[in-house]
Amino acid sequence: MLTPTRAVRVFACAAPVDMRKGFDGLSALVEQHLGRQLLKGDVFLFVGKSRRRAKVLYFDGTGLVLLTKRLFQGRFARPWPEKDATSVELTVAELSLFLEGCELAGRWKLSPPAFEEKTLAVGRAP
User: Fold this and answer.
1) What is the pTM of this model?
2) Distance (Å, rounded) from C-alpha 87 to C-alpha 123?
3) CA angle 15, 16, 19 (to 5 degrees)
4) Residue 65 in contact with residue 57, Cβ under 8 Å?
5) Strand partners, 108
6) Is residue 106 scored above 60 in pLDDT?
7) What angle do CA 79, 70, 77 make, to 5 degrees?
């Protein structure tokens, strides 16, 4: 089960992927094509060329988890809007919307950016 927190980063591969790939093939894509480390806890989304299958790969602290979804009707949204990008970053909420069939997820930012704590300088004049 995915942790519904904004601290988890989700990356969608920005190119169609051969859906025959399993743990090892997708792990290699994460490290070689996306330039990321799988064991850091990030979540990775892969979509096939026909956009009828999607796979989600992540490390849960004890091992790799691979979730697969195959649609019987319709297609997943295309998560690769820009030609030069290697990945598209999503929030966990956007990933959930994507897997539910939302056509906007992965194309436009649907969630506000993560909260960043800023310290204010008290007593300083501008």
Assistant:
1) 0.77
2) 43
3) 140
4) yes
5) 105
6) no
7) 20
Q: Are 103 and 77 in contact (CB under 8 A)?
A: yes
**Whole-number Cα distances in Å, 76 to 5, 33, 57, 61, 114:** 23, 22, 17, 29, 25
Q: How many Å apart are CA 87 and CA 13, to the nearest integer? A: 5
Q: What is the pLDDT of residues 3-20, one digit of tens each?
A: 556 678 899 998 889 999
Alpha carbon 23 to chain centroid, angstroms: 16
**pLDDT per position as a tens digit, 36-75:** 999 988 999 999 999 899 999 999 889 999 999 998 888 8
Number of continuous H segments (helices) and E segments (strands) in the chain: 2, 5
